[in-house]
Structures are given as C-alpha cells and as structure tokens.
Amino acid sequence: MSFVLASNLGTATTRMEDRRTASLNEATAISTARLQAIALDDPRGRAIATMLEEYLVIRRTVAASLPGSVESSQASESAAKLQSAIWNSMASRLSERADVQAVSLADALTHTFDMSTAQDFALVSGLPQRLPPYCGVFCQHSWRPATQQPASRWR
Asked: Residue 108 in 3-state DSSP?
C-alpha cells in the first residue's frame, strides 16, 4: 500500500513540476519573441509584438483551464488562429526584407510555438501506460485478508 501511495505522490509531483517548467519555458519564449519583434522597429514588428501579447493572454487561459474543457478548447482554437496570423505577418516581413533581426525573430517564434506544444503535452499527459497494471497488482497483494497471508517462517 505504501508503495502505491509513494508511486502516486511521486508521479503527481513529477507531473506538477513538468507543467511548471513547461509554463515557465513558454512564458519566457513568448516574452523573448515579443522583445525581438519590438526590436525590429517597423510596423510589422510592432504588429507581431501586439499579437504576441494577445497570444500570451490566450495561453494563460489554456494553462488555467481544465484540459478538455470547453474553455480550453476555445482558447486553443484562438491560439491556433493567432499563430497563423503571426506566421503570415512574419512571412510578409521576411519577403520584404530578410535581415538578421527578422531571421532571429522567426527563430524565436518557432521556439515559442514549440514551447506551446510542450506545454499542451504537459497539461494532457497522464500516467505512464505500464504503471496502472502494476498498481493493481500491488494493491491486490497488499490487501489480502490476514487468513490468506503466508505463514511466518519464524513461528
């Protein structure tokens, strides 16, 4: 019984830490991309920075809502549409002028959206597939009635 409890607590702690790390990485990536968009110092850069601010608000909603809920689904759809708009704006900027700052921003946006995917995965990932059957086996063996316990060899 104590093994199962320890295993469950360890799994819960690990999942919470994974979610926390993914949230921090995503927020850092969004902030970095926003600062790089501002550094472009042109209208498209400012537009991308504004969209990233909106994106951050939407991603907070995703992280705060229950996975699979209506609120989470709607926020995820909004985030996907905003990602598309950001990429369209970035593609337009690159076609106008592909300088070092624009390429760096494109790389930061790629990292931002990769971190969003990692955050989504951290929110919905459950127990490892092999763990639940083992938990069932340990529970069965630890809860046998005293009459079914093996005889002590010290009697």
From this structure: helix
Give the residue carrying structure tokens 């608000």: 57
pLDDT digits (tens, 9 = 90+) for 94-121: 999 889 999 999 999 999 998 888 888 7
Residue 34: other Cβ atoms inside 10 A: 22
Domain spans in the chain, listed from the N-terminal domain onward: 2-144
Residues in the chain: 155
Cα–Cα distance, 138 to 8 (Å, whole number):
13
Q: Which tokens in the block code for residue 8?
A: 């469950």
Distances (CA, A) of 112 to 30, 67, 84, 99, 143: 5, 20, 13, 20, 48
pLDDT bracket for residue 13 (50, 70, 90):
low
> Cβ-count burial of 93 within 10 angstroms (0-12 exposed, 13-18 middle, 19+ buried)?
buried
